[in-house]
Design brief:
- The protein is an alpha+beta fold.
- The chain is built from 20 helices and 28 strands.
- Helix 11 crosses helix 19.
- The protein is globular and about 85 Å long.
- The two termini are about 15 Å apart.
- The relative contact order is 0.09.
Length: about 725
């Protein structure tokens, strides 16, 4: 390890000796830059120790052999530089500039950037070249541009050049990766400069290691090939995955996603393996029982994540069972659902203690409404009374719908032996609830729902889609989070009120069928029997009769008005607040990522009586270099203030000082309003540490640390 690090420093010092540090440039642009220290390289005023740095550039179409590099500290963005300094673009609007630089038709110039490793990596002699375009750039053009830009970089030592395709260019780059390689242009990304593995959830696991590609995980679980006590190795983690003992991904995921939060709650390790040696080790151990652990170890360590993967195939079965017994979940202390005495209530009147009537999501929503009335949607909540009335309908042979479903699910225990049978039973239950030919809303229930939705306090427009969000008493609590276990759906009240039964939907003409509110409610109810939700109830030993589905209701946020969305986790320790804000532009989900996007990560730190300090950890790959999802730092500090206010209100309501809270938020058009739409507690998986400790047989190599404070015995006698 010491030799590897010294080798990197030696190479860096060699680069630096041949290209000494410069001073701030007084030039607007040049046709050459120096690597690695040119003053044109962007340096964030907010701190970028762990961030890549770059120089923006462009190549005019009528001068394809000349590169124009801009001072990226004075002009971080292409447009601002071009309209200020280049005659060809003088006076252009942003829209006109985009039209002649981001599209093939009418193009005047190609836009690009030279990216170098972050300072924190002990910079090495490599650069990445990016090209920006809304449409795929032909591969031959990419080759010529990369060669031209690379040829305009001056350095005293050889350096390696990679093509870093942006999001829009990635499909072409992946399709022709072998061709680019043959042209001497390897494809890569800034991920190559990430040191060590990346941790999304701490914990340990013991189980069989199985590999499945991301698109086959669900079917493997349904068919029993992947089980809850297995450890999953995959090429990429989709938005939702079945419950497993641990997850290792070969590609990046998203912090604060539902998968990450559920893993944190369960103490199940979730890590992106970025180190080649760990990837090779994991692939080597597929099909064997392994012990896996991953923990954050702090800045004092050489690597930020301590990852262990040990072959445990020959572990004594008795010992293995004793170790797995330590994975028993803590007592849930769940409030059984109770009768409220009415089908609905205004969320302004609800508190976290009302979880027994309205579920966690709706009960916590009262904190948002009272604390942030201008930054949270007006909402109502349907109580468990509606769920119980629906499930009490007569089904067959003198049994209610609820009784029939519970009877079908009663034989299953944790961990289930036959996952195919479990999935078949759950699919049957969900079909019953969703199918209006087999089950029904009585006339009285329909009237009660319509009365609630017409209540003037909530200002629900029949012509706009209304969001019906799952809210159970086994989620959003202090011990169990339940993120992503259930589903939410939108419905159009006008579709239930018109005389027709055929589409299209009144609220959304692009929907060829009607999308009424009762259809949406049925689907939310049916999600109570999603496989992961049922498995968690089995794991915690919950009586199916004690839990149910309530619903939170407010106007939906259609994709067209979403300017940004995100998830944030607030940690309060005494008077100190640390808020991690993970966001993405538009409607590209952070809570349920599709694996194609790198989300932006911003940290905001604050202590009572002091200012808010925001710093960028990771940029979104859906934006141009240097651009942030929200306005930096103002919007992030505004979000942090709102989240702090909510944390204080939540802490007062539940009687807690130190807190770990999870928020979901959106920014909406046309005025860029920030809206917080969810608050919930993130349980601490280490709240009840096991009393028994086990030493896993994991051979390790130790080297003597050669320092000036060593002694002659360690520095000389033991060097061999």
């Amino acid at each position: 390890m010491e030799k590897r690090i010294w080798g990197r420093w030696r190479r860096w010092l060699s680069c630096m000796a041949l290209a000494p540090f410069g001073v701030m440039s007084q030039e607007a642009w040049r046709t050459e830059i120096k690597f690695p220290d040119d003053p044109f390289f962007y340096a964030s005023p907010y701190g970028d120790y762990g961030q890549t740095s770059w120089v923006k550039c462009l190549v005019m179409r009528d001068e394809p052999t000349t590169v124009v590099f801009q001072d990226s500290n004075r002009w971080p963005f292409h447009y601002d530089f071009a309209v200020s300094e280049l005659d060809a673009f003088a006076g252009m609007s942003p829209e006109a500039f985009d039209a002649v630089t981001l599209h093939e038709t009418g193009r005047l110039a190609w836009l690009g950037a030279v990216v170098k490793p972050p300072y924190s990596m002990s910079p090495i002699c490599e650069v990445g070249i990016q090209l920006v375009g809304r449409e795929p750039i032909p591969k031959e053009t990419v080759r010529d541009l990369v060669r031209t830009i690379a040829g305009a970089i001056r350095s005293g030592e050889d350096f390696d050049v990679f093509y870093f395709p942006t999001y829009e260019q990635a499909p072409v780059a992946q399709m022709y990766e072998a061709w680019f390689e043959s042209q001497g242009i390897p494809i890569s990304s800034p991920a190559r400069w990430i040191e060590g593995n990346h941790l999304y959830a701490e914990g340990w696991a013991l189980g069989e290691l199985k590999y499945f590609p991301g698109d086959l995980i669900e079917s493997a679980f349904v068919n029993g090939l992947l089980k809850p006590d297995d450890i999953l190795l995959t090429d990429g983690v989709p938005a939702e995955i079945p419950m497993v003992a641990g997850v290792m991904s070969l590609s990046p995921s998203t912090p604060n996603s539902h998968v990450a939060i559920l893993s944190q709650t369960a103490g199940a390790p979730f890590v992106w393996l970025a180190k080649d040696e760990d990837v090779a080790r994991a692939l080597e151990l597929v099909g064997r029982r392994v012990f896996m652990s991953a923990y954050e170890v702090g800045l004092v360590e050489i690597e930020p994540v301590r990852f262990r993967l040990v072959d445990a195939e020959n572990m004594d079965e008795t010992i293995a069972e004793e170790i797995l017994d330590l994975k028993q979940p803590p007592a849930l202390n769940m409030a059984p659902m109770a009768e409220y005495g009415a089908f609905y209530a205004a969320t302004e009147d609800l508190n976290p203690s009302d979880i027994r009537f309205f579920g966690g999501k709706a009960a916590n929503f009262g904190i948002l409404r009272r604390t942030l009335p201008d930054h949270s949607p007006r909402a109502l909540a349907f109580s468990f009374d509606l769920w119980k009335a629906f499930m009490a309908q007569e089904f067959a042979a003198g049994k209610t719908l609820g009784e029939a479903i519970r009877e079908r699910l009663a034989p299953f225990d944790w961990p289930p032996v036959d996952m195919a049978a479990v999935n078949e039973a759950l699919s049957w239950a969900k079909t019953l609830i969703r199918d209006d030919q087999q089950t029904t809303f009585s006339a009285a229930l329909r009237a009660s729902v319509l009365t609630a939705l017409a209540d003037e306090r909530f200002a629900l427009d029949p012509m706009r889609n209304i969001r019906f969000r799952s809210s159970t008493n086994m989620e959003d609590g202090p011990v169990f989070n339940g993120a992503g276990l259930y589903d939410s759906y939108s419905g159009c009240l006008a579709d239930d009120q018109d005389a027709g039964v055929a589409g299209p939907s009144v609220c959304d003409p692009t929907e060829v069928d009607e999308r009424g509110v009762f259809r949406a409610i049925r689907r939310v109810f049916a999600s109570f029997y999603n496989p992961n939700a049922f498995l968690e109830r089995l794991r915690y030993g919950v009586d199916e009769g004690d839990v149910g589905m309530a619903i939170l209701v407010h106007h939906s946020f259609p994709d067209v008005i979403e300017e940004a969305n995100g998830v944030a986790v607030l940690s309060r320790r005494g008077t100190y607040y640390d808020i991690e804000i993970v966001s993405q532009t538009g409607a590209w989900s952070v809570a349920n990522p599709d694996g194609s996007s790198q989300a932006e990560v911003v940290h905001v730190r604050h202590s009572d009586g002091s200012s808010y300090y925001a710093s960028i950890e990771t940029f979104s790959n859906r934006l141009v270099l240097g651009e942030t999802v929200l306005i930096f730092p103002d919007d992030y500090e505004a979000l942090a203030r709102m989240m702090k206010d909510c944390a204080q209100a939540y802490g007062a309501a539940v009687g807690k000082g130190d807190l770990l809270l999870d928020y979901e938020f959106k920014q909406t058009a046309p005025d860029g309003a920030l809206v917080i739409k969810q608050i919930r507690e993130v349980p601490d998986p280490n709240a009840q540490p096991p009393a028994t400790r086990y030493l896993i047989n994991d051979p390790a190599r130790y080297d003597l640390w050669q320092t000036e404070y060593g002694d002659i015995f360690s520095l000389h006698r033991l060097k061999s």
